[in-house]
TrEMBL record:
It comes from Micromonospora citrea. Pfam families: Aminotran_1_2, GntR. In the C-terminal section; belongs to the class-I pyridoxal-phosphate-dependent aminotransferase family. SUPFAM superfamilies: PLP-dependent transferases, Winged helix' DNA-binding domain. This is Transcriptional regulator, GntR family. Residues 26-94 form the HTH gntR-type domain. GO terms for molecular function: DNA binding; DNA-binding transcription factor activity; pyridoxal phosphate binding. Keywords: DNA-binding, Pyridoxal phosphate, Transcription, Transcription regulation.
Amino acid sequence: MTSQVRGAQLARLLGQWHALPGRRRSPDYAALAGAVRGLLADGRLPLGVRLPAERELAEALKISRTTVTAAYRELRESGHLASRRGAGSWTMLPGTHRVASTGLWTPLDDRDMIDLGVAALAAPPELLPAARAAAEDLPRYLGGAGYHPTGIIELREAVAAAYTARGLPTSPDQIMVTNGTQHALDLVLRLALAPGGTVLVEAPSYPNALAALSARRARITTHGLAVEEPGWDADLLLGSLRQVRPKLAYLIPDFQNPTGHLMPAPLRERVVATAHAVGTDLVVDESFVDLPLDGTVLPPPTAAHDRHSRVITIGGMSKPFWGGLRIGWVRASAPQVQRLAAARVGVDMASPVLDQLVAVHLLAEAPAIVAARRAQLTAQRDALLAALAQRLPEWRVTVPHGGVTLWAELDGPISSALARATEEVGVRLAPGPRFGLDGTLERFLRLPFTLPVADLVEAVDRIAAVRYDLDRGGRPQWREPAVIA
Ligand SMILES: Cc1ncc(COP(=O)(O)O)c(C=O)c1O
């Protein structure tokens, strides 16, 4: 499953490598090696990919081959490259870096803690009336056994209608209701991925999805997202699909968690076409699709480009409505839904009828509820951005135009150390490495804007206070990421 990065691609990723800060006195080969280490640490260059041959990279960078040879030698010595004569050189990280396998984010019960580890809103005011109305509806179901492995028809109709309204004609038999989007992912993986199968994911990506993939013992290959829009590099993403030919790719094209990026329509179309050509199934997680901000117009759903049942879409109520409902769904072909339902009865039989009825009532009022959520998120995002600009101006953030999180590029590889320090002052953070593999992404931090403004401002104050304490303790070198064991 070796994937190879070509000279021109690596040159593009390296960008202004010879102008990196602090390298004025270091020779070119050392700067080049340092820049490659930086790409690895940031998850932009995946582990286990073959680097271009020395001559090819020298031509692409317009430097001498000796410089590349020396840089590769230095990377081998620092444990970032493994080479075999005649076969090439592969990227790696020194030591056995592994992120803790429990990728779980669970909210804390500690009420004094400002929890920025969870990116989800409190319930909307419409929830309680919806729950009462659902209880009134319940008698209609009490005469039956209550097991509906694909979900109650009213909810499947409402979900299908929402897809159709987004330009993706969908019938209720293409919908299966699940206990949340995470459950949907797990079921899809059970069906579509044999243990040990190869999966392509974005880096960074949603930690609990990575946990679900680990549970399937998936062999994971990554596509590194840039901080800047659009995030995905079309050439590299499509190249990885063609080279690795993964069994499955898990993507979050709509306000990606954690970066907030929105995949442009042309790339969606090319990803679907390429996936079909190489035999890859696409699992598209639309958790945040209802939450565009700033009047952002959504491209057509990824599945709208699908003619061959290659795309399985998952989504749910948690982000626009409430996570505590535990209602999600899968949109697939009708036969796939039947297979998923058959797999599901071996796990949990069906979703609770009452919660599904609550979801039906909330979806009936979706336009008003979601409009209020967007207004709330916009105000909270802007307050968070303002607090960051004031208290932590050296951090770089790309303003997300949707979703509930922003991905901050820190001023050093301090994310895990910062998260440890902020626990002491009552702020729980999700450090960058939790969104990737192998201890990369230490220079990044996900910050959700789902809490009230006062909490967000207070949290940034506390983070800034310990950030400067960390400074006094001596700032680690950005090229040597602290690793989570
Ligand atoms: C991308 C993504 N997928 C899935 C989930 C899980 O959603 P649910 O609560 O519906 O299981 C989340 C929640 O944060 C998410 O961000």
